[in-house]
């Protein structure tokens, strides 16, 4: 169950956890982006901390709920980015810790299927689709970090 975002003592920003869902094929690394519910901009699955749930597991739950994917989530943080979450008329500064999630299952039906679109794209295309510069940087560097 989601709880209110906790503020980081260092930054004063709300903390969230997210994933970069990906798959690797002969064509290279492809990542999954989804649309946000309110502004319809391209984002990654992310959400608030969940009580009793480790950060990487909470991020994997968000991937299922928001994007309809399941897989193997890495326990190590890939990186983080900042963004301003719009809540009503207010803007809440957030920092998102991001984990890689190797997609093993893509569902046709999932909890937020009627609220979001999803798109599989290569890393450089994904970087051009998102608005957050820090997320774009993570996406640009993801392919080289994934294909070792």
Helix content: 10-25%
The value of Rg in angstroms is 14 Å
CATH level 1 class label: Alpha Beta
> What's the helix count?
3
Organism: Methylorubrum extorquens (strain ATCC 14718 / DSM 1338 / JCM 2805 / NCIMB 9133 / AM1)
Keywords: Hydrolase, Magnesium, Metal-binding, Plasmid
GO molecular function, one term: metal ion binding
Cofactor: Mg(2+)
Give structural attributes.
alpha+beta, Nucleoside Triphosphate Pyrophosphohydrolase, 3 helices, globular, hydrolase
Question: How would you explain this protein's 3D organization?
Answer:
- This protein has a single domain (14-146), classed as Nucleoside Triphosphate Pyrophosphohydrolase, CATH 3.90.79.10.
- 23% of the residues lie in helices and 41% in strands.
- The chain has helices spanning 55-67, 123-129, 133-146; strands at 14-25, 28-35, 42-43, 46-47, 69-73, 79-87, 90-106, 118-122.
- Strands 1, 2, 3, 4, 5, 6, 7 and 8 form an 8-stranded mixed sheet that branches.
- It starts with 13 loop residues before the first strand and ends with a helix.
- Residues 1-9 have low confidence and may be disordered.
- Pfam families: NUDIX.
- One of its GO terms (molecular function) is metal ion binding.
